[in-house]
Design goal:
Elements lengths: L1 H23 L7 H19 L4 H14 L1 H13 L2 E2 L2 E2 L3 H15 L2 H19 L11 E5 L4 E2 L9 E2 L4 H11 L6 E4 L12 H11 L7 E4 L5 H14 L5 E7 L3 H10 L3 E7 L23 H23 L7
Length: 328
């Protein structure tokens, strides 16, 4: 019921904004092109909402996501402000737009804010999905969401190079060697934006084998580029192999809430196994201590804030699509 009401409110807001923009164009024939562009934009928005994995939908979705990120939002404000500069003067509301953009950039790139935002996201995930229950309960499979944990092998690189999120590969191997599940399902689709036609799951398998996981115990799921796709494909693998839909789910702490609810929504009993913590370690009594440098903006902090904000946007999108199990 809550999903339906949220969708209704969202649609009403979109209709109101569209009607307001339509009326602002006036009845002049010269504005016909703007109205046609508006209709075309609405069609693209609908396509991006219902088919975000299609080429056009993905492009629109990435553009919209950029506009809602701190850096993208600030750039849009600054670009709009420059259009209000003419004849050596600045017309309103250009000064307000410039100040707003600077405030957004300064706050979101401050480590003290980034750490606070990440801590809130990770602590909330731990509380909602009961991370403390991990990981003594056995399952039929360990599911590793590995998208973005490795870099492609290029001619000058003979080994698999890991990224900052590769801790989840090591953690999945540790859980397997503890005997918690007989299989490790590696879900990672084709690399995004790469000229090299490789499936990341194959590279992750090489790393798992080096970490002591038998090759025969690794099941590749090479199609999942999103959490929802991974959940759908994983459920099909479990059904095809006659395995019970009881899994241990390994992914980043920021993403674990959305991932767990998505897998649970498809009928899988999910034990969350978060890793890649930015600020919080739920297995130790530790806390982050700020220093003076944490109040000075830097690029790493902006990246962390953006990652947290992207996850909240994705969580809201999954909620609108009805892909989350009750409990959101």
């Amino acid at each position: 019921m809550l999903i339906i009401l949220t969708r209704i409110v969202f649609c009403i807001l979109l209709i109101c904004i569209t009607l307001s923009l339509w009326k602002s164009c006036g009845d002049d024939k010269r504005n016909l092109i703007y109205k046609l562009l508006m209709v075309f934009s609405i069609i693209l928005l609908i396509l991006a909402f219902y088919a975000p994995d299609s080429p056009v939908g993905a492009a629109v979705f990435r553009f919209l996501a950029f506009a809602f990120k701190p850096l993208g939002f600030s750039i849009i404000l600054l670009v709009y402000a420059t259009t209000l500069i003419s004849g050596g003067g600045i017309k309103g509301p250009a000064p307000t737009l410039i100040i707003t953009a600077l405030i957004v950039l300064i706050i979101t790139s401050a480590p003290v804010f980034a750490v606070w935002a990440a801590q809130e996201a990770e602590e909330d995930a731990i509380e909602v999905v009961s991370v403390s229950a991990c990981c003594d309960e056995k399952a039929d499979a360990i599911v590793l969401l590995g998208q973005g944990t490795t870099q492609p092998i290029i001619p000058d690189r003979i080994q698999v190079q890991l990224t900052k999120t590769a801790e989840r590969i090591i953690y999945a191997a540790e859980l397997y060697k503890k005997g918690l599940a007989p299989y490790v399902i590696v879900s990672a689709g084709p690399r995004i934006g790469s000229d090299i036609n490789t499936v990341e799951a194959q590279d992750i398998r090489r790393v798992l084998v080096l970490l002591g996981v038998p090759r025969g115990a690794i099941i590749l799921e090479p199609n999942g580029s999103t959490v929802h796709e991974s959940a759908v494909e994983t459920r099909e693998i479990l059904d095809e192999r006659g395995l019970e839909p009881v899994i241990i789910l390994v992914t980043s702490a920021i993403q674990i809430r959305r991932a767990s609810l998505t897998f649970t929504d498809l009928g899988m009993r999910t034990t969350p196994a978060p890793t890649d913590f930015n600020t919080v370690n739920p297995y130790e009594d530790s806390s982050y201590r700020f220093v003076l440098a944490d109040f000075l903006p830097n690029a790493e902090a902006l990246l962390l804030t953006t990652e947290v904000w992207e996850e909240y946007l994705a969580l809201f999108y999954y909620f609108l699509r009805g892909w989350l199990a009750p409990g959101f």
